[in-house]
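Give me C-alpha cells for this 657-residue protein.
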Amino acid sequence: MSTLLHSRSRSRRDPGEFDDAGEEEMAGLSAKSDGPPMSKTRRDILHQQIRAIKDELGENDEDEDDVASLEKKMQEAGMPPNVWKHAQRELRRLRKMQPQQPGYGTSRTYLELLADLPWQIASEEHEIDLVAAKERLDSEHYGLSKVKKRIIEYLAVRKLKPDARGPVLCFVGPPGVGKTSLASSIAGALNRRFIRISLGGVKDEADIRGHRRTYIGSMPGRLIDGIKRVGVNNPVMLLDEIDKTGADVRGDPASALLEVLDPEQNKTFNDHYLNVPFDVSKVVFVATANRMQLMPAPLLDRMEVIELPGYTSEEKLRIAMLHLIPRVLEQHGITSEHIDIPEPTVELIIQRYTREAGVRNLSRHLAALARAAAVKVAEKDQSDRHTREMQTEVTQMIDHGGGGLIVEGAEVDMEVEAIGVQRQGSLPLAIKPEPLVVDEAVLEIVLGPPKFDGREAAERVATPGVAVGLVWTEVGGEVLFVESTAMLGKGDLHLTGQLGDVIKESAQIALTWVRARSAELKLPVAEAGSLMKERDIHIHFPAGAVPKDGPSAGVTLVTALVSLFAKRSVRADTAMTGEMTLRGLILPVGGIKDKILAAHRCGIRRVILPERNRKDLQEVPAPILMNMEIILAKRMEDVLHEAFEGGCPWKPATSRL
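Here you go.
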C-alpha cells in the first residue's frame, strides 16, 4: 500500500520538480562521464531524454543549427590566428547561453560581424593602364591638368610597386569642382571597389573607432562598417568632408583619424567594438575638404593636399556642352530633338545667372530648361495621342460604311463615303515636333530676370568711400565691397557686417595708418591731428548675414578710408587684396587664383596683388591673365597710386604684368 502511494506522489509531482530532477540526473551523468565509455544504446536513451526535456521547455535544435552554421562561416572567413582564438572563446560562451538571455543577441551579432569581415578577401587588381586612366580622367573631367598629372603619378607608383605606402590624397576646393568624382576615377583606374564615408557633422569619436560592447546599442565604427559592406579589404575609401568634423565631450574624430591615416599604425587598427586588430593598410584613402584651415595640423601632416580651384567661364562652357547638357537631357527623358541650347545661351547663363566656382548652379539652371522642354514634349505627346484616337474612330466608322447620327431625339441613318482616306492602320503624324530653341527671351521666361549684370561695381564705387576687395570663402573667391562714411561724433570707429576679430584689427590698423600719413596723402584737413576731430567713422561690409574674417581686406580698408577723406572715387574696374602692416608693407595672402577668377566673373579687369604673390600667378590660366591687368604692389602707396585716377601724391615704383 505504501509503495502504491509513493508511486502516485511521484506521478503528481510538479513539472518544475520534474525539470529539477532531470537536471540532477543530467548532472550525475556528466559526473560519471569520466568512467568507462557508455554503450550506443545508453547514449541513444540519453539523447531521447534530452529531446523530451527540451520539448517540455519549448526549445528545439534550430539554435544549435544556427550556431553550427555560424561556426562554419567563421572558419571560412580566414581570420588571423589571434583573432580566431578570440572568436572561438566568444563562440564557446555563446553555446553556454540560452537564446532568452539578454547578452545572447549581442554576442551573436558580434560573432556575425567577425564572420562577415573580409579578412582575406581582396579585389583582384589588373595591371594599371596609365593611358586608359588618363583617357578616363580626360573624358570625365575637363581641365584640372595639375590634379590629373598628380593622379597619374600616383597610379604610376602603384603600377611599379603595388604594395607601396602611398600618401593620402586630400582634394581641397569649393563645392561642385569634381572632388568626389576624381576619387571614383581613381578606384576605376585601380580596378577596386569604391566606398564613400561622409564625415560632415561627425562629433563623436565612436563614429570612427566604434562603441564598446558594454554600451546599449553599440555598433562598429564607420570604417569597419564600410569595409564590411564593400566586402573587400582593399577598397578605395573616400573620407568626404573631412574638414566638417567637430569636437565635444564625446571626443575628437579628427584625432581618431590620425591612427587610420598613418601607414605605420593602421596595420593594427583597433575598433572599440571589434576589440581585435584589423589591417586597413591595404585601403586606399582619399579625402575631400572645402577648407584646410579648419583641419588640425597633425591631420594635415598625414595627407598630401591637392587644391582644386574654381573653373573659368571658358571651362564652364566646355563642361556644360560636353558633360552637363547630355547628362541633364538623359535624366529628364528628352533628347537634342526636343531642346536646343546653343553656346551663346550657355554663356549668358554663366554670366548673368551664376557666379560660382563650381558648376552645380549651372547644372540646376540647365535642368530647369530641360523641365520646360519636358512639359512641352509631354503636352504634345498627349495631344498627338488624342488625335490618333480620334483618327482611329473615324477610320472605323468609314470601314463600316456609315453610322447612326442622332438628331433631336430621332436616329437618322446616313452613308459616309470615303474620299482619299487610307484604311490601313492609323494615320501617321506628318509634322515633326519642333525643338525648343533656348534664347535670351526663353531664359527670362524660365529662369526669371538676370541676377547679375556688369554695372554693379561701377554703380557701387561711384560714391567716395567705397572700394572693391577680393576674399576667399569655402565656395571659392568672392568680390567684397567695403563701404565707409563719416559723421559727427567723438572720433570713434564703428564696424558692422558680422566681422571677426582679425578683420576688426585690420580696420583699426588701416585707420591708424591713414591718420599717421594724412599730411603726406594731402588729405583736406588742417593738420594731421584733426582728421578724426568731432567725427566718427563707420565701416560696413555688406551681406551682413555672412560671417567675415581674415587679414586680406587690409589694403581695401585703407583705400576706402583714403577715398572717403579725399572725396575721390576709386576706379570701378579695379579690385585688390592683401594684408597690410602698421608700416605700410603689403604681405602675401592665399587663394590668389580663386580671387582672380572671381574678379573676372564680375567683369573687373584690374587686380592689385602683393608683390610676394607673383609665384601664385602661374596657377592662373593664361587666357585669364591675357584679358586682365595684374598690378603687383610692395607698399600701401603703390596700391593707392593705382586705385585712383591720376594716381597718388607719392610716386611709388609699381610692377605690372
